[in-house]
């Protein structure tokens, strides 16, 4: 990397968000951009999460870009290896590799108010950019709880997102900490080979059957020959999920029927009443993400598995101790304890116009305008920002909506001409988030009686979008200049954009 390379746009991350941004930039005629990636390959969370059984819980034909359909998905729900291969394919088909700087972790991004640009320090050098698109994603930095005694544990310890493939689990006594989306895939994958598996469950999840199957050669040939058939398949999958949104956002009590289906799914595999009681949630289904698995409950019923209905509280040597006092001797501890979602580490590395970091600006909770732009951080936007997550559909739909917004943001800067920057007005950010939080009040995520990673430390839901993907696409179709302040270089004062 050149010592002081300057680009029009710097994209941070090369997962779905970063690669999607890169493709959209090229399609908009913007070729003066780089993608800064801290690892040595593309893929984001689908590169980092390579644990046994890792797969997506959104159907393959919906969990892919609309502009890059893939007729050859081998299964209705894709495994990690297939999704990662798809992202490599997208990188090559759209000729993105010349733009990517691998092994270039962003150390700091600082806004220069005189030059109206971002000064970026990376592990491989320095550069500057007119606009920054942060696509690091909320599932990129693993969260490991601070358990007393963990440092002195003599065995093996790793997080599900940093799986140690060199460690042989065969015959070992293993503690699995957590019962989220990763854990319910890991447990049935490793249960047959470990000596004993102790699952530490703070809160039981609702688990529905995973209706997964191989996609036949005939289906794939049809999708290749007649692309509209794959589009119709994607449209059907999307439409079903759009219809489901009302139950999550406006009528949570209607989800009781779904709970009965989930209980029947459990009862088919779990015959022991005591174990069934441990595994039955006491909150409304959907309050936490509904998990999909047809193998999780059967694995828990096996004789070499113990379910501890309590969190891990302490480690004494090779003994793991639960909050309820139960103990187990283990050789390895695997943490399936999620990620830094409402406290993303990248926020510590973004210094805005007022000299404070994004983490400081978001100290009271994450907030942005239309899930993209934060007040005081000009020409900076994030993909999968605050309140853009989904509880029942594909995040690729949300990403593509945000790419529409990014494209229009750049168009507006071109129309304004000269040295210009757009900074989201505090009043616009506040108005947007007031509307979002007002809608959030009646959703299952706020009323369902659970504590989830959707909520920040103050109990506010700053991650989920309380509506349909259609509504979000409409809200991010174009930039409303009245929601921004226009900054001019070199020494002009902030002037309000003429609405």
UniProtKB/TrEMBL annotation:
Keywords: FAD, Flavoprotein, Oxidoreductase. The keyword Oxidoreductase applies. InterPro entries: FAD-bind_Monooxygenase_sf, FAD/NAD-bd_sf, Flavin_mOase, Flavin_mOase-like. Gene3D superfamilies: FAD/NAD(P)-binding domain (3.50.50.60). Belongs to the FAD-binding monooxygenase family. This is NAD(P)/FAD-dependent oxidoreductase. It comes from Streptomyces longisporus.
């Amino acid at each position: 990397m050149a010592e002081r390379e300057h680009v029009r746009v710097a994209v941070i991350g090369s997962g779905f968000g970063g690669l999607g941004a890169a493709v959209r930039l090229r399609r908009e005629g913007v070729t003066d951009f780089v993608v800064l990636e801290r690892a040595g390959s593309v893929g984001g969370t689908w590169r980092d999460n390579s644990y046994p059984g890792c797969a997506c819980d959104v159907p393959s034909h919906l969990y892919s870009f609309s502009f890059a359909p893939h007729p050859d998905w081998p299964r209705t729900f894709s495994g990690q290896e297939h999704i990662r291969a798809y992202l490599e394919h997208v990188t090559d088909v759209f000729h993105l590799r010349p733009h990517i700087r691998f092994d270039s972790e962003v150390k700091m991004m600082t806004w220069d108010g005189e030059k109206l640009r971002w000064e970026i320090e990376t592990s491989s050098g320095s550069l500057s950019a007119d606009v920054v698109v942060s696509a690091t994603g909320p599932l990129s930095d693993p969260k490991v709880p601070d358990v007393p005694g963990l440092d002195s544990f003599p065995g093996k310890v790793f997080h599900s997102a940093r799986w140690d493939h060199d460690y042989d689990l065969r015959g070992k006594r293993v503690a699995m900490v957590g019962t989220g989306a990763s854990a319910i895939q890991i447990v049935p994958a490793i249960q047959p080979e470990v000596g004993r598996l102790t699952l530490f469950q703070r809160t039981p999840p609702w688990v529905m059957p995973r209706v997964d199957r191989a996609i036949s050669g005939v289906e794939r040939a049809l999708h290749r020959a007649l692309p509209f058939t794959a589009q119709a398949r994607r449209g059907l999958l999307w439409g079903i999920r759009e219809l489901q949104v009302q139950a999550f956002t406006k009528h949570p009590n209607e989800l009781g029927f779904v709970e009965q289906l989930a209980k029947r799914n459990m009862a088919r595999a779990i015959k022991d009443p005591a174990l069934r009681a441990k595994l039955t949630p006491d909150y409304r289904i959907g309050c936490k993400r509904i998990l999909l698995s047809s193998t999780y409950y059967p694995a828990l019923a096996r004789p070499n598995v113990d379910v501890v209905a309590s969190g891990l509280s302490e480690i004494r040597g090779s003994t793991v101790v639960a909050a309820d006092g139960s103990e187990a001797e283990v050789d390895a501890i695997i943490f399936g304890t999620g990620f830094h979602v409402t406290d993303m580490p990248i926020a510590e590395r973004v210094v805005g116009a007022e000299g404070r970091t994004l983490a400081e600006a978001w100290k009271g909770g994450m907030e942005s305008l239309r899930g993209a732009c934060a007040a005081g951080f000009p020409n900076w936007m994030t993909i999968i920002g605050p309140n853009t997550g989904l509880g029942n559909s594909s995040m690729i739909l949300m990403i593509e909506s945000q790419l529409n917004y990014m494209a229009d943001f750049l168009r507006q800067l071109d129309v304004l001409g000269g040295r210009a920057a757009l900074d989201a007005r505090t009043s616009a950010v506040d108005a947007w988030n007031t509307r979002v939080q007002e809608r959030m009040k009646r959703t299952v995520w706020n009323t369902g009686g659970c504590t989830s990673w959707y909520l920040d430390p103050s109990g506010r839901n700053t991650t989920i979008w309380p509506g349909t993907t259609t509504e979000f696409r409409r809200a991010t179709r174009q930039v409303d200049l009245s929601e921004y302040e226009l900054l001019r270089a070199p020494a002009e004062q902030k002037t309000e954009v003429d609405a």
